[in-house]
Amino acid sequence: MEPSAPEPEQPPRWWRSFDARLVFGALLLRLLYLATILDSPYFLHPITDEAMYDAWAQALVAGQTFLDYPYYDSPLPAYFLALIYGLFGHSYLMVRLVQVFLGTLNVLILYRIAQRLFEPTTAKVAGLLAATYLPFLYFEGLLLKESVALFLLDSSVLLILGALARPTGLAFWSAGVTVGLLSLSRINALALVAACLILIVASLERRTMPRAALALSLGVAMVIAPVTIRNKLVSGDWILITVSGGQVLYTANNPANQTGDLAPVPFVRPTSLFERIDFHRRAEAETGHRMTPAEVGTYWRHKSLAFSLEHPLTQARMVGQRILRFWNKEELPDNHSIEIFKRFSWVLRAPLPAYWLVGPFVLVGLILLYPRRRELGILYLSLAFYLLSLLPFWVSTRYRLPIVGLLILFAAAGMTESFRRVRTGQARAWVPPAALLAGACLFCWMPMPMPDLPSLERNLAYAYEQDRQYEKAIEIYERLRGVEQNPDNELYLAHALGLAGRMDEARALLNKLTEPTQPASVRHRAFNFLGDLARLARQWPEAEQAYRAALTLDPTDYGAWNNLAVALTKQERYREGERALEQSILLAPEDRIARQNLELLRRHLNESTIQPAP
C-alpha cells in the first residue's frame, strides 16, 4: 500500500499575517495618539483654515448653498466634513476617527503598492514606515484636507497600477475619478493627470491606449464638471475649480515676499475668513472699478507674473529655496506646528520616523532604482509632476504631505537595497550607497531658517481663549511681549484680559495703543478692539464711539461699519444702523455677514411699525 500524499499546507489565517499585524498596529498607534490630544485646546476649537472649513461644512448641513461667489477654497474638504456632520452630528471626534480609519487604510494601500513594485522585504519596510510616520498621525488629528488628499493620491496610484495590469475602461475611469476627487482637495494635483496620461502612452499598446486615456480623462472630468458648472452659474465665468489661483500665486511671488516661503501680504489679514475679501477689495481699489471674481484672480496672476519677469534672478532663487524646502528634514509649519502639538502628546515626542529619516533614503532610493525607472514610472512621474506643481508657490509640511506616501516607497527601497549591499561585505558593493546616504543626509539635514514662531504661539493662545482657559492665553501673550516688539501681542492680550473679566486692565492697555504717538494702523486696530470689548460688556454707546474712531482712521474698514451697525441697532437707532450696513456692503459686496445682518434688520423693520430708510 502506497503512502498517502502529504496534506497541502494551509495558509495562515489572515489575522496572523503581516498584513493584519500591520493594520492593527497602525490603527492602535493612531487611536493612542488621538487619546493624547483630547485635552488639547485645538481639539474642540478649530482655528484658521480648520475654522473656515468647519463653518463651511456646518452651513452646508444647515442647507446654505452659498450661491453668491465661485469657490475660493478647495471644496472637497468642506463637503467631506459636511458628510460626517450630516451622518453623525457636529462631532470633531468623529471627524478624526474617520480620518484615522482612512489613515489606517492608507497604510495598507501603500503596502499593496510596494508588493506590486518591490520584493517582500521592501514592501514590509514600506508598510512599517507608513504605519509609524509621525506627520501622518499628526495630520489625521487635524480638521485639514491633507490626510484625505494623501489617501486619495495613494489610492489613485494603486488604481492606476491595477488598470495597467488589466487595462479596462472601468479601471481607468475609476482611477480618473480618484484623481478628480484629489484635485478638488488639492488643485495642484491636476498635474498628476499629465503623469497618468504619459504613463498610459508609454505602457499600453496602441490599440488600447486611446480608450484608456479617454476613460481616465472622463473620470476626472465627471468629478470636476459639477464644480465648474456651479462656478459658471454663480459668477458667469468659466472657473475650473477655485478662483483663488492668482491670489495664491501673488502671495508666493510679490515684492514683499522674496524668500520663497509663505509670508503675509501686507494688505491681507492673515486668516482665510478675510483673505478673499481683502484681495478683492484691494484689486478694485487699485483699478478703480468693480471687478468680477474671475477678473480679480486674473489681476493678481498678472501682477505676480510681472514681478517674476521683472526679477528673474530673485525668482530663480525663490524656486531654489522651494526645492530645498521640499527635501529638507524640517517639518515647516503653516496653521499649526508639530512642535507645539508635542506639548500635548507624548506619542509625537516618541522617536517615530519623520522626514528626517525618510528624506535621505528617498534620494538614495531614487538613484539606486534609476535602472528600473520605466518599471517604476508611476512613482517617478508622480513625484516629478507633483514637485513641479509646488514650485510656483511655497513648500510646507502640509503641501508636501500628499506625496510623502510615494516617497516612503522610495525610502523603503533605498533602505533595503543599501542593507543588501552592505551585507555582501565587499567594499566595492557598499561604499557607493554609503556615500550616497552620507551626501543625502548632508543635503536633507542642511540648516534652514524656520518661520516666525510667535505667530504660532498666538494661535495657541487664541485656542486657549476659545476653550475659556483665559489665564493660559494671557500667560502666552505676556511671554511674547518680552520676546518681541509687536503690537499684536498687546492687542490680543487686551482681548484675553477682557474675556477674563479684567476689563480695566484691558482698556488701559488699549488706551495706550490709541495715543497719537502710535502708528495709525495700530491706533485703528486698538479702537476696533476697544469696540469689541464694549460689545462684550454690552456697553453700546462706548462701542459706537470706538468704532467711529476706528472709521475716522480708516473709512474703508467695512468690518468696523458692520460692527458699528450692531452697536447702533442695539440702541434702537435702526435707520443709522441700516445706513452703516449699506456702507459696509458698498465697500465689500462679497462679504456675506453684512448682507445677512441687513436682511435681518430689514425683516425686523418690516415686522414693526418702524419703516426702513428711503
How would you summarize the topology of this molecule?
Elements: H1 18-36, H2 48-61, H3 76-88, H4 92-117, H5 120-132, H6 134-140, H7 146-165, H8 169-185, H9 191-203, H10 209-235, H11 245-252, H12 272-287, H13 293-310, H14 312-327, H15 338-341, H16 346-349, H17 355-368, H18 377-390, H19 397-423, H20 427-444, H21 453-466, H22 470-481, H23 487-499, H24 503-513, H25 520-536, H26 540-553, H27 558-570, H28 574-587, H29 592-607
What labels would you give this structure?
29 helices, 614 residues
Task: Please describe what this structure looks like.
The protein has 614 residues and is mostly helical. The protein folds into four domains: 14-240 and 328-444, no CATH class; 245-262 and 275-325, no CATH class; 452-506, no CATH class; 514-614, Tetratricopeptide repeat domain (Serine Threonine Protein Phosphatase 5, Tetratricopeptide repeat). The chain has 29 helices and no strands. It has helices at residues 18-36, 48-61, 76-88, 92-117, 120-132, 134-140, 146-165, 169-185, 191-203, 209-235, 245-252, 272-287, 293-310, 312-327, 338-341, 346-349, 355-368, 377-390, 397-423, 427-444, 453-466, 470-481, 487-499, 503-513, 520-536, 540-553, 558-570, 574-587, 592-607. The chain is globular. The termini are far apart.
